[in-house]
Specification:
This protein has 13 helices and 8 strands. By secondary structure, it is of the alpha/beta class. This is DUF1722 domain-containing protein.
């Protein structure tokens, strides 16, 4: 993040970059699209998309000869399959100004097209230019690579991996968290603002990594002792590392039991037993996460628990997306 954004640029729904073919636009090499109805019709109700098609926007026609990565897997070239025409420099020259434009849009994430030699994020085949045989399955699309180098802290994912319920939940959790972070920074980079952000996201961080959650708490607690730029640099880097850790039932169980501790004096014996049983049923995979979360939300409202009422862990993304409904 380059600095405090003006509030009028960060209010409203998260702004998400996305490969245009996933929105149903006919920009693929064969003149078709790869519409993802969940992304366009479901998630699209809660975010604002910024569509990008590197191949079309850098000047290639539709339809066109398909592209592939060749050469050094660490620094591949982007060439046409049939003629071997090299479009690497063309793509990179186009990407520079476009990344500047995207920086101004204050994106909260990007969804790339899987398996694309320009936009693929993970496990793109890289071929030997002479033999035409794949030599690596660990490549990354030319534009995707430029994007993550420019915006290393932004949440990114590809459409293929978003078919995994856990990865989908984690990505969407991150984009809404990142939007709240942008809004926080827009109010000012101050120790007080950082402490407020940390306090309301503590349980989310605990669910990913208790160790990183403690480190984030320490950074925020000592924010007055260093330059605020250094503090935010450390905080954002640690937060990124934290959110990359996968959510697991055991980690959620730890957070849920921690939340339960805020009702020590309010819950009856029957209520405590009910909550413990629901948490255990979740850990064993018999019920989805939404079940214990709903019960804790119920107790939070019933007993007006002030700390938990501020925790984004209990409502990290729109409930309509049903991301916590999978067992």
């Amino acid at each position: 993040m380059q600095g405090p954004e003006a509030p009028d640029l960060v209010h409203g729904p998260p702004r998400i970059g996305i490969s245009r073919c996933l929105l149903g636009e006919n920009v693929r090499y064969d003149g078709g699209h790869q519409l993802d109805r969940f992304l366009r019709d479901t998630l699209g109700q809660f975010v604002e998309y910024v569509g990008v098609c590197p191949e079309v926007e850098c000047g290639l026609p539709t339809p066109r000869d398909s592209l592939r990565l060749v050469g050094d897997p660490e620094n591949p070239r982007l060439v046409t399959r049939k003629t071997g025409e090299d479009h690497t420099e063309r793509m990179k020259a186009w990407a520079g100004p476009v990344l500047d434009e995207l920086a101004a849009k204050n994106l909260c994430g990007f969804v790339f097209k899987s398996r694309s030699p320009s936009s693929g994020l993970h496990n793109i085949k890289v071929y030997n230019q002479e033999t035409g045989q794949p030599i690596s399955h660990k490549g990354r699309g030319i534009f995707a690579q430029a994007f993550v180098e420019r915006f290393p802290l932004l949440p990114v994912e590809d459409d293929g991996r978003l078919n995994d319920a856990l990865l989908r939940e984690m990505f969407i959790e991150k984009i809404f968290l990142f939007q709240r972070l942008r809004q926080s920074i827009a109010r000012g980079r101050t120790p007080r603002e950082l402490m407020e952000f940390q306090a309301t996201h503590k349980l989310i961080f605990m669910a990913h990594s208790p160790q990183h959650a403690r480190e984030l708490g320490a950074i925020a607690a000592h924010a007055k002792e260093r330059s605020i730029e250094d503090v935010y640099c450390d905080y954002l880097g640690t937060m990124h590392a934290c959110l990359e850790r996968k959510l697991t039932p055991a980690k959620h169980q730890n957070v849920l039991q921690h939340a339960m501790g805020y009702f020590k004096t309010q819950l009856s014996a029957d209520e405590k037993q009910e909550l413990l049983e629901v948490i255990e049923h979740f850990r064993q995979g018999h019920v989805p996460l939404i079940v214990p979360i709903t019960l804790i939300n119920h107790f939070t409202r019933k007993y007006q628990e002030p700390y938990l009422s501020r925790q984004w862990y209990l409502r990290p993304h729109p409930q309509e997306l049903a991301l916590r409904n999978h067992a």
